Amino acid sequence: MADFHQNGNITTLHNLRTRELHDLEYELTTYAQTRRISLILPSLYSELEGTALPHILEELSHVPYLHRIIIGLDRADETEYRHARKFFDRLPQTHTVIWNDSPRMQALDARLTRHGLAPQEQGKGKNVWSSIGYLIACADSAVLALHDCDILTYEREMLARLVYPVANPSFPYQMSKGYYPRIGGDKLNGRVTRLLVSPILIALKKVIGDRDYIDYLRSFRYPLSGEFAMRTPILPDLRIPSDWGLEIGTLSEAWRNLAPKSVCQVEISDAYDHKHQDLSPEDASKGLSRMSTDICKAIFRKLAADGTVFTPNVFRTLKATYYRTALDLLDSYANDATMNGLSFDRHREEKSIELFAENIISAGQVFLDNPHETPFIPTWHRVHAADPSFLADLRTAVSEDEAEFDPA
After folding, report:
1. Which domains does the chain have, with CATH numbers?
2. In which band, very low, low, confident or very high, does the pLDDT at 283 lie, cut at 50, 70 and 90?
3. 406: how many CB neighbours lie within 10 A of its CB?
């Protein structure tokens, strides 16, 4: 993917294969002396038993510029939390495992509920939000990076390239987002990005007309990537979605809060692969079916907030336009796969498109039935305004969990 194309909306930082990793890491280590860099790893306990996370930790153990690593641990009991503490002890950097299911953390959730500020559902969004709160409470970092724990092709150069744009003090960027090709198992992956997000943005432009927000989202080569880096002053005002619209929602927050020149995307890998969700056509509450619906709702909500009027007729037209657009793009993907010697299952791809088309209507109906739905978790500024001691108590709860459940 070595090119130098700029789309004119946000800056794209390419990997031109002209700089070695040790040179990047040396420069980042210099910046980190005055601009500390921290990393958040949202993790399910089950990921400790997989093959990706041990390799990720091995790569991270050689990263010289990280000040702090925060692991948000979900779906773990006491025994599993103790095991997780041992598991992550191989990291040489200062690191903290936040046991999100601990009695102390649940008590904090109940406290937020009394204020009407508790996250509405469990999941990655709440995990990331809690970890960001802990980092804000620590008040010792200038840069935050975030990536998943299921990356099968992880190399520490991914992290270096992700954080460099926001760590370099001479750059204007407040947020960087990673991009890469999704290739694995001898085939093209990334179905939701290829078969839903790209064609629905094209279809929206045809149906509702030009919108700066649509052009902004189309500027990202992989809008659903889970890799972000940010300068920490923007964190207290960041609204984190609690559903599967996390990545689109975070980009929308950058659109709302930051100037386009403050946002960039950066090429972090030649080949990226992680665990894959099932399509789940039989259960709309799971897999890519749930993900596609949440992503559509996130896009519709943002466009409505900017003044777009949606009606049932608009959604029916959008479905038809999306379907034709997605099938046209499918020919391009098939030819691309053939030229690169990759397999391509057209039947599987068209089944995905058919499901996503139906979910556009479902998401539109949910939006029309409940246009005031706000799946965003409250900002940390709002939590602090309602409960000024909450952030300090969050940090204390994490420390007390560590002391009480010491794996030793």
Report:
1. 11-403 (3.90.550.10)
2. low
3. 9
